């Protein structure tokens, strides 16, 4: 039995990179021709010239908040948006390349509401690769406890299981005793859902005095999966692995038997950028996960997920050669309110951009509510005369707030992706 879903997982990194960058201009041309919002995002850009990482990094980043704003404006007929009857505009804010019909199997809603299309290709959300890495195989019965209501999670994992040749029990969420009974009756070999709900089911079985020995593997997602819970499952003879994805992009990265980071999906271009900007960070630096998806139905270009992570060096010990990330390390949107005014990571980046001698900065908000204090901690290569004074004025110009300036040595600020740190006392 092979250890890999397909040969793409073990190809040379240079071969993968070449294939992705060769496909990128074609994907961008398709997106511009079929997704009106992408055409606006890339206005004035010649897609044929976007065939390097450097060229890609010059394109604007689109974030989830932008999708929600444009979808809302399209539905409400906002002044900034001329509403079209085409559902690509009216429903999806112009980011979808498909409307209703055979090319769109389903449409889902995330909180907002933010609507996402499901294309008609098999395993559209691309989670089959993650299921395979977690040990699922053709002929398995999968107990799927992701929601089938509104959001795409249930469909994500069901279509992936079908792509592998598995049968699915659509368990959904809730009704814990009925979940236990269904597992007793059907004896599924695998579980998909959140890790906390699997623990709840197993604990309910304990309470009822029954064993659920059939479940040997699990692919979990949707929330944090700490090592302590992973080990709790292992003690019950269940090997559980995690996958990372979103309702917009589908599967982004997945855990393997090496349990050493998460391996990137084969058809995505990943960048780690400084929060609030589109500036790409070097390997190992924590920043926002930005994805370009070569997806003909929903072609998101430089989509900022709002999640923090970092690229791990080298390749996975399991033999898969694609890029690995450390996993979910928090949220990139660190916007906070200071003295009644919002301060954004992009504003901190704007301050840094004006001073070439600055390496890195971190805005620390301290004090108590109503008595806020801001300190801009900066790493710099040199300290020209009056730099602190000029920085104070720039912060005031950009944020309309006063901040103290504190210089620190290079590499002294934590590598955690934080641009704004709120350490105020709220008691």
UniProtKB/TrEMBL annotation:
Keywords: Ligase. Residues 340-416 form the AMP-dependent ligase C-terminal domain. Residues 137-292 form the AMP-dependent synthetase/ligase domain. Pfam families: AMP-binding, AMP-binding_C_2. GO terms for molecular function: ligase activity. PANTHER family: BLR5969 PROTEIN. This is Phenylacetate-CoA ligase. It comes from Jezberella montanilacus. The lineage of its organism: Bacteria, Pseudomonadati, Pseudomonadota, Betaproteobacteria, Burkholderiales.
């Amino acid at each position: 039995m092979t250890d890999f879903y397909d040969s793409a997982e073990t190809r040379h990194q240079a071969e993968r990179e070449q294939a992705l960058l060769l496909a990128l201009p074609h994907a961008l041309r398709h997106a511009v021709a079929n997704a009106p919002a992408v055409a606006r995002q890339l206005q004035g850009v010649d897609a044929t010239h976007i065939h390097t990482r450097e060229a890609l990094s010059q394109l604007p980043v689109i974030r989830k908040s932008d999708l929600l704003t444009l979808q809302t404006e399209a539905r409400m007929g906002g002044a900034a948006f001329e509403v079209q009857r085409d559902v690509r505009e009216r429903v999806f804010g112009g980011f979808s390349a498909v409307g209703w019909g055979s090319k769109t199997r389903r449409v889902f809603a995330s909180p907002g509401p933010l609507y996402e299309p499901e294309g008609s290709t098999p395993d559209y959300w691309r989670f089959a690769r993650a299921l395979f890495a977690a040990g699922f195989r053709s002929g398995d019965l999968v107990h799927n406890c992701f929601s089938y209501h509104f959001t795409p999670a249930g469909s994500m994992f069901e279509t992936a299981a079908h792509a592998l040749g598995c049968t699915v029990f659509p368990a959904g969420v809730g009704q814990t005793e009925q979940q236990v009974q269904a597992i007793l009756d059907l004896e599924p070999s695998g579980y998909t859902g959140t890790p906390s709900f699997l623990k709840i089911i197993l604990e309910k079985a304990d309470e009822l005095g029954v064993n659920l020995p059939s479940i040997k593997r699990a692919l979990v997602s949707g929330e944090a999966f700490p090592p302590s819970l992973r080990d709790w499952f292992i003690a019950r003879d269940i090997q559980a692995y995690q996958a990372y994805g979103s309702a917009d992009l589908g599967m982004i990265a997945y855990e393997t038997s090496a349990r050493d980071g998460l391996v990137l999906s084969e058809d995505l271009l990943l960048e780690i950028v400084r929060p609030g900007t589109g500036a790409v960070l070097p390997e190992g630096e924590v920043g926002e996960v930005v994805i370009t998806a070569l997806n003909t139905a929903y072609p998101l270009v430089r989509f900022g997920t709002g999640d923090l992570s970092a690229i791990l060096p080298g390749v996975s010990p399991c033999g898969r050669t694609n890029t690995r990330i450390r996993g979910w390390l928090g949220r990139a949107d660190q916007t906070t309110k200071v003295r009644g005014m919002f301060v954004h990571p992009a504003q901190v980046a704007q301050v840094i951009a004006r001073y070439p001698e600055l390496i890195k900065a971190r805005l620390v908000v301290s004090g108590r509510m109503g008595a806020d204090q801001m300190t801009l901690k900066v790493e710099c290569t040199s300290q020209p005369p009056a730099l602190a004074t000029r920085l104070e004025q720039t912060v005031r110009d950009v944020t309309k707030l006063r901040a103290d300036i504190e210089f620190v040595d290079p590499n002294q600020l934590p590598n955690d992706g934080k641009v704004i740190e709120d350490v105020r006392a709220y008691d």
